[in-house]
């Protein structure tokens, strides 16, 4: 009620005033961010991107208009019915500048004029930089401005960053490779192929004088043996390297007096990921030409080339497998000493596990792509008519290689794949626009052709290691050629009705319709339609309300390179043998995906505050998903869902004199979605993860719910305990978590003082769950700090009931040395454990970025733009999960967000950006 009364009082005060509208500009165009204040009040606003502003005033008020580097100007409000427009503000000039004018070769002598100067020419002294002063034969001086000469300009950008891994898993550092035998914890050497670190305390072991390929520093024996020395321990987190990225770009531009442009851009970037010996590079070049044929017509051409290469693409999940191999290695085994044995086999702590450095040495998972773009546009405008014709051509080629070496552990058969993809696009369009008082009408016609050529060669079955990778006994080829012709025609229109309610309100109406013929869509036609209405300046305030209805029909892209669904073919325990060898092919007669989107937006501005509230509702039919059938995936339109959400944005700008200003934006977003139905009577489709733990579309559930194994429970939800005293695992999949957050917040702050700008950004995620499979597998191997802390727990009684329904009273030890290791608290449930145990809250608070910029702008006194920025990303992170993070994807795909299985770690980066323009 207090809020309603407060709004009433504010509105009453506002309604007694009038809205005054204006525009701020200089001779170069609009001035966004200019400060406009009513004199002797705290009532202020600022100009928008186009220089427009509006502010509540009374008759005879005075407006003070200021802008950094410009003279402050004062105007008096006389007639509230008039709109001030095109208010020009002058640059602040110094005596040094006037002295510069006097010292030109042909000097103006103020006391004894040697000639004459036109008053219009003289006025330029107060506005523009003078490059030269020429004297005509009749004695008249002509001032030559910068724009009267051809101009050559350059821009150089350099960016460099270093990132270090953070929020890494915690590992145990007390127990050696081995297990319990006959009531004792026994160390077992690599020759035994033991995978567990459930052995004795490392302080009871030592190096002997006998060396081996596994232990060049001396085989590990009991410390009681003679001639021994203490063993060294290794932290798996030291395996990772810092990630570095460097990018250098150069722009050279020639502009003539007719404003024709020729621009050359060159850019080179190189870097690496957190895995040792990884590297990547990217080259970008472009040439742009802009020609003003006349005042009504101009053409623009752009030619671009891009190439990218990386030597560890993760196309075959190699990155995750490397992280896995490093993490499960016993604490006393140094993988880096040597990756190979004399026999050529890899040197690993077990022949069923991998040495991460061997995986790196034998890595052949690489990717290289190149793209050529050509763009042409002709722009014609005359009075109320304009017409734009453009043509686009793009040709790209992607070549990827991936495979599993004969000596890799955990694979059934060595294999190697070569994947080549070519993609060509041609697009022609014509857009005609007619502007009239209060609106415009626009028609657009386009023609397009796309072609995708995919070839993939599979090699397997090798008689000898030296034949790997190309000389295989079996070679299969997969080819797919797809093309699509499209023709579209559409009409857009907008109209504004002024003073619709008689009090400066404006009603803006907009509608559009589009019809597309496609050679690959079922029934050949796609339709799109939009209608929106916006009512502005309600109640003579900066309050507006809009409603939009948008219907979209779209067919899937010919290109479906998200291959991470391949892991759905493998159980988690078979992760080391997983391959990325299946493709998604768009059907020839594709059913379009239909989307109906409704928006309601309320926007209000007052005293440099801006509030925007957006409520939306979306309904989507025929969402394409990877559908698994008999070991093969098809790209199929199976899922229907709905989503509703609300978004709130608050912006504020504060000015303290001419040197300091502060602005912030606050964002809130919350949404809820639900799968309404799945075609063909299905109730569930998995789309990311593994066969036994995955994300799903489930009827009646939010998008992407996590499903996996749980503990068996009775009708009263009590845990069912087995005869050994441990809970029973229920392998039937169950919904365990929802990766969608309840809401997210963003808070960005900008501080400006003279030429310095400080940006500070926070974000907060509330709600949602993630699956931390990394922790589960580390528990299984006995490598986690969690098992180090809890393995000695004994006489523990799990709360639940026995299989007969009686309360459980059997006490257990989490790791009983009198029992086989396979029966301890963690190993008994397998590599994946019980997925229910791995579900963690996704809440986090993050100081996501911090940057400080110093910038000198090109002006009348300096021909140089200079800016340098220092930044830190992921400055501080608090999260309920100690190592997993909801925004960190599992297999370099957004579909796998919320799943963590030996993902690359989160990074904290430090860097700088330098820009020079002259």
Automatic annotation (TrEMBL):
InterPro entries: CarboxyPept-like_regulatory
Top-level taxonomic group: Bacteria
Name by which UniProt lists this protein: TonB-dependent receptor
């Amino acid at each position: 009620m207090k809020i309603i009364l407060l709004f009433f009082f504010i509105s009453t005060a506002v309604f007694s005033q009038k809205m005054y509208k204006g525009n701020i500009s200089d001779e170069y165009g609009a001035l966004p961010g200019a400060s406009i204040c009513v004199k002797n009040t705290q009532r202020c606003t600022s100009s928008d991107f186009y220089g427009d502003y509006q502010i509540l005033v009374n008759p005879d008020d005075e407006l003070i208009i200021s802008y950094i580097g410009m003279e402050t100007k004062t105007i008096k409000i006389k007639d509230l019915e008039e709109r001030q427009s095109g208010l020009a503000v002058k640059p602040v000039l110094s005596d040094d500048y006037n002295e510069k004018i006097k010292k030109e070769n042909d000097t103006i002598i103020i006391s004894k004029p040697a000639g004459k100067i036109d008053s219009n020419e003289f006025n330029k002294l107060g506005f523009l930089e003078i490059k030269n002063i020429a004297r005509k034969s009749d004695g008249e001086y002509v001032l030559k401005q910068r724009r009267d000469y051809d101009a050559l300009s350059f821009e150089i950008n350099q960016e460099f960053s270093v990132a270090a891994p953070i929020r890494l898993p915690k590992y145990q550092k007390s127990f050696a490779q081995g297990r319990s035998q006959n009531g004792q914890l026994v160390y077992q050497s690599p020759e035994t192929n033991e995978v567990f670190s459930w052995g004795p305390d490392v302080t009871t072991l030592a190096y002997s004088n006998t060396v081996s390929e596994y232990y060049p520093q001396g085989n590990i024996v009991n410390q009681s043996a003679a001639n021994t020395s203490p063993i060294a321990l290794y932290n798996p987190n030291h395996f990772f390297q810092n990630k570095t990225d460097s990018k250098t770009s150069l722009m050279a531009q020639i502009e003539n007096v007719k404003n024709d442009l020729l621009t050359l851009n060159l850019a080179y970037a190189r870097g690496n990921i957190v895995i040792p010996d990884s590297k990547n590079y990217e080259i970008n070049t472009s040439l742009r030409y802009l020609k003003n044929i006349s005042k009504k017509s101009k053409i623009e051409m752009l030619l671009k080339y891009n190439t990218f290469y990386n030597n560890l693409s993760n196309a075959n999940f190699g990155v995750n497998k490397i992280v896995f191999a490093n993490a499960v290695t016993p604490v006393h085994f140094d993988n880096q000493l040597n990756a190979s044995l004399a026999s050529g086999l890899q040197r690993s702590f077990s022949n069923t596990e991998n040495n991460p450095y061997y995986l790196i040495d034998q890595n052949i998972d690489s990717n290289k792509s190149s793209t050529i773009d050509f763009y042409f546009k002709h722009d014609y405008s005359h009075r109320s008519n304009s017409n734009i014709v453009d043509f686009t051509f793009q040709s790209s080629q992607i070549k990827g290689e991936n495979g599993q070496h004969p000596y890799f552990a955990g694979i059934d058969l060595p294999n190697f794949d070569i994947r080549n993809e070519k993609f060509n696009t041609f697009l022609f369009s014509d857009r005609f626009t007619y502007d009239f008082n209060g609106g415009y009408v626009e028609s657009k016609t386009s023609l397009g052709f796309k072609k995708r050529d995919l070839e993939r060669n599979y090699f397997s079955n090798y008689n000898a290691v030296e034949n790997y990778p190309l000389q295989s006994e079996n070679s299969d080829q997969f080819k797919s050629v797809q093309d699509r012709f499209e023709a579209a025609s559409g009409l857009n229109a907008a109209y504004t009705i002024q003073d619709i309610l008689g009090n400066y309100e404006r009603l803006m109406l907009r509608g559009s319709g589009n019809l597309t013929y496609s050679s690959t869509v079922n029934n050949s036609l796609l339709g799109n339609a939009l209608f929106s209405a916006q009512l502005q300046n309600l109640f003579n305030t900066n309050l507006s309300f809009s409603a939009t209805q948008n219907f979209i029909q779209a067919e899937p892209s010919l290109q479906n390179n998200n291959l991470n669904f391949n892991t759905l073919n493998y159980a988690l325990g078979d992760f080391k043998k997983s391959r990325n060898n299946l493709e998604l092919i768009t059907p020839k007669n594709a059913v379009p995906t239909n989307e109906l989107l409704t928006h309601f937006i309320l926007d209000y501005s007052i005293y440099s505050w801006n509030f925007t509230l957006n409520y939306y509702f979306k309904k989507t039919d025929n969402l394409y998903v990877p559908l698994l059938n008999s070991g093969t995936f098809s790209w199929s339109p199976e899922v229907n869902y709905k989503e509703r959400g609300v978004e709130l944005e608050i912006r504020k700008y504060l000015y303290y004199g001419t040197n300091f200003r502060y602005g912030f934006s606050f964002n809130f977003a919350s949404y809820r979605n639900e799968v309404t139905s799945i075609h063909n009577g299905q109730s569930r489709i998995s789309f990311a993860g593994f066969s036994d733990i995955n994300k799903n579309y489930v009827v009646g559930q939010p998008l992407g719910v996590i499903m996996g194994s749980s503990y068996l429970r009775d009708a009263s939800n009590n845990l069912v305990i087995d005869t050994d005293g441990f809970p029973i695992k229920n392998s039937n999949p169950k919904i365990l978590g929802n990766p969608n957050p309840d809401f997210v917040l963003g808070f960005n702050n900008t501080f400006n003082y003279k030429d310095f700008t400080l940006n500070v950004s926070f974000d907060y995620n509330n709600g949602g769950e993630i699956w931390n499979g990394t922790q589960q597998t580390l528990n299984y191997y006995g490598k986690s700090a969690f098992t180090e802390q809890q393995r000695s727990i004994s006489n523990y009684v799990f709360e639940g009931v026995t299989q007969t329904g009686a309360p459980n009273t059997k006490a257990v030890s989490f790791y009983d040395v009198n029992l086989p290791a396979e029966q301890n608290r963690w190993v008994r449930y397998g590599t994946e454990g019980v997925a229910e145990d791995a579900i963690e809250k996704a809440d986090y608070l993050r100081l996501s970025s911090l940057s400080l910029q110093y910038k000198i702008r090109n002006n009348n006194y300096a021909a140089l733009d200079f800016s340098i920025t220092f930044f830190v990303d992921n400055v501080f992170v608090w999260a309920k999960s100690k190592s997993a993070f909801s925004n960190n994807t599992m297999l370099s795909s957004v579909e796998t967000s919320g799943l963590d299985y030996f993902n690359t770690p989160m990074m904290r980066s430090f860097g700088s950006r330098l820009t020079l323009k002259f």
